[in-house]
Amino acid sequence: MTRRETPVRGLVLAGGGARGSYQVGVWQALQEMGWEPGVIAGTSVGCLNGAMFALGLTDVARDMWLTINSHDVMALPGDRAADPSGVMLRQFVEQGGLDVTPLEGIVQRVLDEDALRASPVRFGLVTVELRGLKPRQLTLEEIPQGQLAQYLLASAACFPAFRPRQIDGVEFIDGGYNDNMPIALAARMGAEELVAVDVDGVGITRKNRSGLPTTLIRSFWELGSILQFEPETARRNIALGYLDAYRAFGRLRGVAYGIRTEDPERAFAAPYAEVLSPVLRRWPTLALTEGLALNRLGPEADRALAPLELAALTAGVDPARAYTLEELEQAFVDAWDPVPARRLWPLFEGKAGAEGALASLQPAEFVSAAVYRVIQGPEFPD
After folding, report:
1. Residue 310 CA from chain centroid, whole number
2. Closest alpha carbon to 210 in 237, 224, 191, 223
3. What are the backbone angles phi and psi of residue 83, rounded to the nearest 5°?
4. How many C-beta neighbours within 10 Å does residue 114 have?
5. How far apart (Å, rounded) are the C-alpha atoms in residues 154 and 322?
6. Residues near 8 by Cβ (< 8 Å), separated by ≥ 6?
7. What is the pLDDT of residue 91?
8. Side-chain half-sphere exposure of 368, counting CA atoms within 13 A
């Protein structure tokens, strides 16, 4: 028997409504890196995206996300501009849920069931029977011929916001009520290693007990409202997903920003330590202040780049593009408002005073001031 050289790869796509645009960017990056799945399993918007990916409809998926608005997905009640607080929308939900006939039209138009059944990629989805909340984790082979679109829409029936989907007299709702990240389904379908894409959707995300090597891709940034479909938000999310996939495979550094650099220790971390060490010798408690500030980036932060990333985040630098180390430094300098940090500057001159206590109250500005000094030197900006 010939041993397979490459394990079967599984792509798992979580539910999350309008945040699903992020998955298109991930998919584009995976294709560029030559990562091709033999299995795709998805819940809710994840299964809708997954069906397009299995059919090779990358451009279609991208164009769809960059053009649809909320009214292209669901029939919205009344004049939304005249109902800014969403009172009418909530009343409509209370009366049984939004009508997703527009979404049904998209699914019927875009997804070819026969072509998907002929695809070499195995496909599966999750939905839930409304009565008793009975889960249905289904492979494509287990879905009756001619009913794929109905089950896709059932998986995406985000109850109670959307109406349940009725199939053969049974009402189904969003698969997130059972498993918003269907890793177990992908494993049952034969996947031997996984990429799982989380978009912070509403639902039950079960612990990964598959024992399979798993690369989790998720955004540091907020991806917008689950029910608000907007082309500009989608464009940003696609860019973030693209960068995060490259980061997950070690092609970019950073957590909040995608950074191209081979030696951040030497290029940034060492100069930063040189600036900060004298300050910490005089005011040791500021080490806690720095740590508190950097914790904003989470436990997965790249420690060599974390101060620069925090400074860029504080300054509002755009995360939806890749940067070289030098480009991110310049983007921070261009965006940073130095005024809040002006009173902290004597810290870096070795002068005593109340600046240490003041810095402890402004952790992010303290780190940003140190980062600025690394990049621009001792002259405080005008």
Report:
1. 19
2. 191
3. -135, 60
4. 10
5. 37
6. 38, 39, 190, 191, 192, 193
7. 46
8. 26
pLDDT averaged over 10-residue windows placed end to end, the chain, 382 residues: 74 96 98 97 96 95 92 66 45 55 79 95 98 96 96 91 92 96 98 98 94 98 94 97 97 96 92 95 93 94 95 98 97 93 87 79 94 90 69
Contact in structure between 301 and 255 (CB atoms under 8 Å): yes
Tokens 């007299």 belong to residue: 169
pLDDT for res 160: 82
Residue 367, CA distances (Å) to 196, 265, 272 in order: 34, 17, 10
Torsion of CA 162, 218, 245, 210, to 10 degrees: -90
Instruction: For 181, list phi and psi in degrees, rounded to 5.
Output: -130, 85
Of 2, 58, 8, nearest to 35 by C-alpha is 8
Distance CA 246, CA 135 (A): 34
Q: Per-residue b/e over 140-163, b at no fewer than 16 CB within 10 Å?
A: beebeeeebbbbbbbbbbbbebbb
**Distance, CA of 310 to CA of 307 (rounded, Å):** 5
Q: How many CB atoms sit inside 10 A of residue 84's CB?
A: 7
Tokens of 322: 């890749």
- Residue whose tokens read 């889960």: 135
Which residue, chain included where needed, has tokens 């053969």?
A: 168
* pLDDT value of position 341: 85
